[in-house]
From TrEMBL, chain A:
This is U6 snRNA-associated Sm-like protein LSm1. Residues 10-85 form the Sm domain. Belongs to the snRNP Sm proteins family. Its main location: cytoplasm. Component of the heptameric LSM1-LSM7 complex that forms a seven-membered ring structure with a donut shape. PROSITE patterns: SM. Component of the cytoplasmic LSM1-LSM7 complex which is involved in mRNA degradation. PANTHER family: LSM1, SM-LIKE PROTEIN LSM1A. It comes from the Eukaryota. Pfam families: LSM. It is found in: Cytoplasm; Cytoplasm, P-body. It comes from Camelina sativa (False flax). The gene is LOC104756256.
Automatic annotation (TrEMBL), chain B:
This is Sm-like protein LSM2. The keyword Nucleus applies. The keyword RNA-binding applies. It is found in: Nucleus. Pfam families: LSM (PF01423). Residues 2-76 form the Sm domain. Keywords: mRNA processing, mRNA splicing, Nucleus, Ribonucleoprotein, RNA-binding, Spliceosome.
Length: 128, 93
């Protein structure tokens, strides 16, 4: 692998153009991490400084601080550069403390489970 | 190699990348690499309301391993060229 020239960072697919920028990292498990990219490698392993997890449930959200993170590349779905001139979230979203978002997450999970069991019970009806 | 070369020729075109997690992103193809990682510019998420966290993302890097489809404009592809290239690869590879 040859060394990248200063201008190469603009044309290649390397993450060098994202260094020291505030990014949104989507993980395979659905988590959304945000932070400053400090390092990366060919597997898209990444070091994120001042990382926090943005948990979103409906119109509620909460940023949970995480500190310094190393993310294993196989878990990365997408790395997005945030436009500082734009709002990160729609206006109707409300920031809430961690305890409240955890409650909301639990409620949402239970609703999903309930939907799943209801569907299973309806299967015998053979409505299709 | 074949698709890497093919995507290199597509740089600058508008594509929609559908990921395995069902997220679909439209944008201009900026670059691609040997792993078929994709960088998109001027991105817009297809079902924006479902993904509020993506609102201010304008450029992104997508890991090749998570791509399900890359949707292209109908006339963005010279199918015959691609067909010939595939035959050549099959013969030589």
């Amino acid at each position: 692998m040859s060394w990248a020239a200063p201008d190469d960072i603009f044309f290649s697919t390397s993450l060098a153009a994202y260094l020291d920028k505030k990014l949104l990292v989507l993980l395979r498990d659905g988590r959304k991490l945000m932070g400053l990219l400090r390092s990366f490698d060919q597997f898209a392993n990444a070091v994120l400084e001042e990382a926090y997890e943005r948990v979103i449930v409906g119109n509620l959200y909460c940023d949970i601080p995480l500190g310094l993170y190393i993310i294993r590349g196989e878990n990365v779905v997408l790395i997005g550069e945030l436009d500082v001139d734009k709002e990160e979230l729609p206006a109707q979203m409300v920031q809430v403390p961690e305890a409240e978002i955890k409650r909301a997450q639990k409620a949402e999970k239970e609703e999903m489970l309930l939907k799943g069991t209801m569907r299973k019970r309806m299967e015998f009806l053979d409505l299709d | 190699m074949l698709f890497f070369s093919y995507f290199k020729d597509l740089v600058g075109q508008e594509v929609t990348v559908e990921l395995k997690n069902d997220l679909a992103i439209r944008g201009t193809l900026h670059s691609v690499d040997q792993y078929l990682n994709i960088k998109l510019e001027n991105t817009k998420v297809v079902d924006q309301d479902k993904y509020p966290h993506m609102l201010s993302v304008r450029n992104c890097f997508i890991r090749g391993s998570v791509v399900r489809y890359v949707q292209l404009p109908k006339d963005g592809v010279d199918v015959d060229l691609l067909h010939d290239a595939a035959r050549r690869e099959a013969r030589g590879g």
